[in-house]
Every structure is written in structure tokens, then in C-alpha cells.
Amino acid sequence: MTTTPRTTPAVDASASAHTTPAQARRQYRDGLAVPSSGWAVGFTQANLVVLPHEWAYDMLLFGQRNPQPVPLLDVTDPGSARTALAPDADLRTDLPRYRVWEDGSLVDEPTDVVDLWRDDLVTFLVGCSFSFEMALLDAGVPVRNIEQGRNVSMYRTSMQCRPAGRLSGPLVVSMRPIPASQVVTAVQVTARMPDVHGAPVHVGSPSSLGITDLASPDFGDAVDAYDGDVPVFWACGVTPQAALMASKPPFAITHAPGHMFVTDVPDSVYRQP
Amino acid sequence: MTTTPRTTPAVDASASAHTTPAQARRQYRDGLAVPSSGWAVGFTQANLVVLPHEWAYDMLLFGQRNPQPVPLLDVTDPGSARTALAPDADLRTDLPRYRVWEDGSLVDEPTDVVDLWRDDLVTFLVGCSFSFEMALLDAGVPVRNIEQGRNVSMYRTSMQCRPAGRLSGPLVVSMRPIPASQVVTAVQVTARMPDVHGAPVHVGSPSSLGITDLASPDFGDAVDAYDGDVPVFWACGVTPQAALMASKPPFAITHAPGHMFVTDVPDSVYRQP
How many CA atoms lie within 13 A of A185 on its CB side? Predict the structure, then answer.
């Protein structure tokens, strides 16, 4: 079990919720290395995957073929650190913490990647379940990991993604315990948000996904279920990281789990009518 | 104005509506070269774009950046003539008619492309508005081009797609005259089908799209509007063909307008709840 280290935020939590996305990014750029959950509430956060151009086609195709775990919100031009999702942001500095990968192995977790940047790097920004957690709360569905102040539980499954060129790997899912009477609402609310993973892939029965122990997630924290809760599983944006670990491209950069890219795009843009 | 030649179907129209997708493809494979509108009703039809692997990244990125005109339903591995959308189909023979492009110019319209196939060709299958026309009819919204037995009217607009590498070009739209009282229904019905172009991009006012004369479409047929109809514009799957014409890759294959690939996927798969 890999538990994300929880860093005590250096700022007041309720204040961070009301920062603008630009203010949040400026604090991260200045070196604040805290999980971004709860920051700039109402604005979409994104997973980050950076690969050399020589691997970019495989990643783009991996996203096309696996849209639930890898909903691509933007793809940059080679070498560019700019995205349409936040025109004034610098993707090399504006996340709270990064991960650097060589041949599929984690080699560093820096707070910026300026010195590692190259002209051939392509950045993929991938939708994140933080957006639909707000929609669940708005619909009256409790989100246990938020209640308990923990990172969501994530698991490698026995289901394989559809491969794309040299990229392959397991589907990674996030799990939220949902009161049985509200599972239908949770399905309906998230189904309307396909760009941020959409409807659950699975309800109940962890074993049929190859998950043996809900208390031992592969990423994130264990989250306590209450009596009457059912485990509900969504495709997870950590899936591309699992594919990098399985497929071993020579070089890659991602965000550190929970340390996302805060965009200027309101969550409502990704909610369908 | 380019009018698609209308070929008299060699089979009874009501019979073709009730063929299975596999039966339709077999007749096209055997040489029947007719528009596929009205065939195998209830199953998704797709636009086809085939490019050398060296251009495939640009096309894939063009689709990611322009999902309304270019909703990618499947992308094949290089050289493969197989698609997950119809596992027994052969993409080189099973469309009623193809177009072959060299340096952005149309050079041939054959009924198969077996002799032109190469190991480096990648096929893109793109959602088609035929799927949402059935949904409009189901909702009681008249579809004038079907009533009048014509191909839908399509126009190059003054709006540019977001470029991707070497690929750029104008947004192409299809236009359907919709009774004013049913425009809202038409928006709601098609908004639920983002994989087949989704909600309209524009309602009324052709001139603000740079369209000077609705009676002179750039592709397809002119369609008569009735009193009280409003022109409603949807992003169109001919957009990639316009990008090929503008960007001039050395070699490409597409379907001929209206002569689509009939998949095994029911339209209902692309209707959201």
C-alpha cells in the first residue's frame, strides 16, 4: 500500500477554497507543495502527463481508446508550457508537486520541472474526479474521503486498458463508499460528466475487479465505509501513471498524486445538461 | 456548388432499411455504390479518413482539439483494415464509395481501395449526423433533407478549427431547417449525442458564419425550408476533408460524401441518459 504523504497546508483551508485559480497557481509556483484538493473550489483540476514527442502518438491514442480513465482535456504543442485551460499558467512551475519517471521508475518529486524541460515534450491534461466530487456534494451525496480528510482510495484492477502502440497497463479505479439509497443518484450525477471520468465502471463486488482488500489501496488512503455504504468504482486518472510504470518510456513527468493542475475552467463547463 | 450525384439504389429502399449492417457491407463489398443514408437503420454510420502514419499524430490531435466536427469513434493500428466498431468488416472494401486524395486534390472515387492499401495507413472513423437524424425523427422533429430525399446541405464557414501540427482548415457545418417551435427540442436531443457532433454550433443568422447563400451549399444538396423554419447548424464530419484540402498531405483516402461506413454499433450506444 502506497499512502500519499499528507502535508499540512501552509495556509488556512477555508481561505484556499476561495482563492482564484491564478492565486493558487502563484502560491504553488512560489514553492508551496500541498495537495490541491479543496483549492479554488468550483474550478476544474487536471492530471498531468508529459512525454517526449516520440511517445506522444501512443499516449494520445491511449486516451482516445480509453476515454473513461484518460479523458483528455488538452494536449499542448511540443515544447510549449502553455495550455488553453489556463492561458497565463506555466505548466513547468504551477503545479504544487511533480513526479519524474525514467524507464518506468519514479526518480524524483520536485516542485518544478524547469531544468528538465525540453523542446520535444508534449503535455497531456487529463480530467480529474475532484470535479465530480463537488457535483456529488451538490446533489446531497456524501463523499467519505472528504468527510474524513483523506485522499481517495485507488486500486489497480485486473481489467486491462485497450493498448495503444507501446502503451498498455491496467485500469486504475478510485473507490467511494456511497450509501445504498444514493447509488442511483451518484450514477446519474457523474454520468453527466464524461470529461471527468463519467459514470462509475462498477458498483459493489471488489473481487470481480481483482481487488482483494479495500483497506489496502494501491494509491491514496484507505477510507472508512459506514454501515449501509456500497463501494462504487470510477475510472481514475492515475491509469496513465500505471501505464507509464508498465510500459517504461525512457522519460516522463506527471503530477504527484493529489497535487493537480488547477485550471481556469469552471467545473460547470464539464457538466452536461 | 458541388452537388453529390444521386445514384438510384439497386435495391428496394424499405428493404435496405431492414438489412443488417453486415448485409449492407456485403452488398457494398460486392460493388454496390449507393449512398448509405437509410441503410441498416438504427446502426451508427461513420465518416472515414485514412492517412499515412507519419500524418496520424496531427489527425489524432486535430480530433482531440476539435471534438464537435471530428468526434473520433475509433482509430486503427497502422496497416490494419479492422475496427472494433464492426469486427468482421474490411475497411478497404466495405464502404460503397471512396475518395482518394493526393497533395490535397481529389484524384479518384473507387469502390474499393485494396490496391492502394499500405502497411503505414491509419484509419480514423468519425461520428456522423445520420445517428442524430434518427433521434430527431424519434422526437417528432422533421428532417427536411430526408423528407425531400436529398443529401444534407453542408457549408464551409469563416470559423477556423483549432490547428494541430500541419493540419488546419475551416469548420464545415451541416444545416437543417427546423420549425421555430421545435428548435429547443432539436438542441436538447442532439446535445445528448456528443459522439455524433452533439448540440448545434449555431442557430439562425447564416451570415455570421460567413455563409452568403443557403441555396448554394459547398457540399451536398440544397434543401428547401418551409415557412417558419429556422436554419440550424451542426458541426459536420466533412470538416476533416476540408482540412485535407487545405493542408495537402501527400496521400489520403476518405469516404465519398454520403457513402459512409456502416458499423455494428446501435445508435443508442451514443445517446446519453
Answer: 15
The Cα angle at residue A192 between residues A188 and A193, in degrees rounded to 5 = 125
- Would residue A164 count as lying in a domain? yes
The verdict on B122 and B146 lying in the same domain is no
What single-letter amino acid sits at B68?
Q
Determine the number of helices (DSSP H) and then strands (DSSP E) in chain B: 7, 11
Please report, for the domain that includes residue A261, its CATH number: 3.40.1640.10
Domain enclosing residue A21, as ranges: 13-127+246-270
pLDDT in tens, B188-243: 999 999 889 999 999 999 999 999 999 999 988 999 999 999 999 999 999 999 99
- Cell numbers describing residue B186: 432539436
Cβ neighbours of A65 in B, within 8 Å? 75
In chain B, the number of structural domains is 2
Same domain, A122 and A254: yes
The H or E element containing residue A27 is helix A21-29
Selected residue of A61, A125, A168, A188 to mutate for chain B interface (largest B Cβ count, 10 A): A61
Chain B residues with CB-CB distance to A57 below 8 A: 56-57, 60
Q: Strand, helix or coil at A113?
A: coil
Nearest chain B Cα distance for residue A266, angstroms: 19
**Distance in angstroms (rounded) separating the CA atoms of residues A233 and A206:** 9
Q: What is the DSSP letter of B95?
A: S
Q: What is the ipTM of this complex?
A: 0.78
CATH (domain of B187)? 3.30.2040.10
Q: What share of chain A is helix, strand, coil (3-state, %, to 5)?
A: 25, 25, 45
* 8 A C-beta contact, residue A68 and residue A61: no
User: Which residue among B72, B77, B194 sits closest to A64, beta carbon to beta carbon?
Assistant: B72
- Residue B55, C-alpha cell as written in the block: 500524418
Give the whole-angstrom CA distance, residue A197 versus residue A211.
Answer: 20
What is the predicted pLDDT for the residue at A186? Answer: 96
Size of chain B in residues: 273
Q: Is A184 exposed, middle or buried (0-12, 13-18, 19+ CB in 10 A)?
A: exposed
Residue pLDDT, tens place only, A91-146: 999 999 999 999 999 999 999 999 999 999 999 999 998 888 989 999 999 999 98
Question: How buried is B126 (Cβ within 10 angstroms: 0-12 exposed, 13-18 middle, 19+ buried)?
Answer: buried
* Sheet order of strands, B153-160 included: B153-160, B170-179, B229-235, B202-203
